[in-house]
Amino acid sequence: MSIDLSSQIRDYLDEVAEPVSADEALSSPVRPVQLPPRFGRGLIVATSVAILVLVLGAMTLLVRSDESPTGWGRVVQVVDSGSGISVEFEVGLDSSGQICAQAGTASTVDTVCGGHGPATVGFRARGEMVVAGYVPSSIAEVVVVYGSRTRRVAHLKPVPGWDAYAFGLTGISGDPVDIEFLDDRGTVLDRRSVTLGSLADALGWEEVPVPSAVAGAQGGVVWTGTELILGRGNIGQSSHSMAYSPASGTWRELPDIPWILFPPAKGVWTGSEAVFCCGMPSATLLANNPVAYDPRTDAWRIIGESPFVDISPTDMAWTGEEVIVVGTEEIGSVDLGTGHWEVVMGPGGAIDPETGQWEYLAEPMPLAVGRYETVWTGDEIVVLPVDAYLQSNGMAYDLADRSWRVLPELPGSAWPSVAKLAYTGTEIIVFGLSGEQHLIGSRLDLDTNRWVEMATALPDPESCDCGDEDGLTMVWTGETLLVSTGRLGSEFKPDDPLLLAYDPTTDRWTYEGVSPLGWSEPSTALMAGDRVVFQTKDSLYISPPGWQPHGTTIPAGGLQQGRQP
Amino acid sequence: MSRTDVEQDFTRFVRRFERPLARALMASYGPEVGREATRDALAYAWEHWDRVSTMENPVGYLYRVGQSRSRSYRRKRVLFPEVVSGDLPHVEPGLPKALGLLSPHQRTALVLVHVDGLSEREAAKAMGISRLGVRRHAERALAKLRDELEVHLVN
Prior knowledge:
The structure holds two protein chains of two kinds. Helices cover 8% and strands 41% of the residues of chain A. Chain A is mainly β. In chain A, the strands form twelve sheets. Chain A has a five-stranded antiparallel β-sheet, with no helix packed on it. A four-stranded antiparallel β-sheet of chain A has the order 2-3-4-5, with no helix packed on it. Chain B has helices at residues 3-47, 49-52, 58-69, 95-101, 104-115, 120-127, 131-149, and one strand at residues 152-153. Classes of the chains: A mainly beta, B mainly alpha.
């Protein structure tokens, strides 16, 4: 049967809510549009941080108690499959009757104790958030209300010698979780709330809330060598900037940006200035002028007038002489029946920041592409279609010759429909989600011009809704490709995003834990010296200096997905 | 121009744009919250009439305003009421449930582009995501609805 869906949705939505009349709008009080005043947001953040510090402080007192738990003779071992990596932990009582849990590897064991009776315990091990505890046998079911979206039932395992069951759950997010204890008729007998702290904390990373002046907006982030410069803007608002020093842990307020940046804006460091550009929709009738911030003078300037009417940059790069803005102005049409696009586009533009002169970059691409990602290698702009509908080869634009070359066909049958690119110094890595919802990747050796398929990381994320807007983020650290997968699972059966690391020299993946980004979206990543930085609208997540992967090697064939017990 | 003239302009504006705006906000937040957000967005439009009246894409802009306003109303779960038998005989009975199974981004992209007729770029600016993201969300929404309703889509 065929139906006209658009008209059905329109008629349905028009039916279910009475129209708002002009009189009603005219008589309606106008409330402040911004939430809300920024001081309020800051207060909320500050309060949250204070509570977090108190909770973590209390947990620190509990964790690593010198007193060995004495109830371990009655310990049960609970294994939760989590994200495929089993985190084994044990539940028991210490000498004072507190419930304790311990878990770890052969070399490190973390123990946490807290609460009496049928309590729950917050616990962190190897990047995993664990809730553990025991319940009397009158309890038939333990349910975690998880991330305010779904419910997850815990395994209950009988405890030898106790009239009780033990349970454990891994992969709990850093948000507070409610745990409900139900009898066999489904009646909730008890409810506990557990706050475990941030996911970043579990990994040993810093979570740095973004100040209210730039929080909630999107834009570029640039590393100057000492500071992270955030240039952000949003529709209907002016653009603001702040600088953060990871070494001192302090923010510095910068002068307001003299032009407007829109969310797709990106940035690049030229060695003396942080240049941000673009994202301006044509409807604003404003040019996509790039702006530059000089930390020595603490001043912004507008660099020349951009020829781009409407550009959403996919990448910016500094060649040593020019800033490259890779993006597109496009003329296109889509066949709604087949989903196929015909797009004609130019590769972007280059600007000399000294003279402010812009130049269009040569000819259109040799092949039609739909959705695409780009990366700059120092010589070429590599453009790779990531479009399951329009599967063109990749292309590379040589800036010196102002010419295109077509890359060889991607290997394998699967095609990335959502993906990111990285440049390792010798290879291009493309990693993302295939049209069949599998996470796949390939590497292109630029010397041999040959693609190699990468080992599988996650063979079967169920109905994965992850993607560029949903947090798929990656960065080349110098030795490793670090990937935050974006949320896995579907809207109603969500799984946490995972932090995975890939070593191209061994073609091996490691599982580093639950991503510190949680369900934040969208996000970008960059290296700030030897620290990894993930940026979201509201936070920066910063690794310790010299961060190296140290997770569990993922076996051939990949992690087995499925968090449902 | 007298206030009466301006009010008449605003009334015409509401007649023209209230429905597409309301549909987009209802798609994001459900009928109840969506209507509240629509009323607030239109009240904001009146308060800033000099600016809003000249916009090329007021639906996209006011959607963002409504999005901001809706924060205080939002519910954890968006519910779409069932169709009362006989009221909309041509509407698939399973449509409300199927809409509820989509993510808010998917519903919003679908409605802005395929129901309200915004371009992907306009929808992207309104939603604060990329144009490609709008396309992807709309594609997935259509695919899910197709599967859920077990029908072929004319559009």
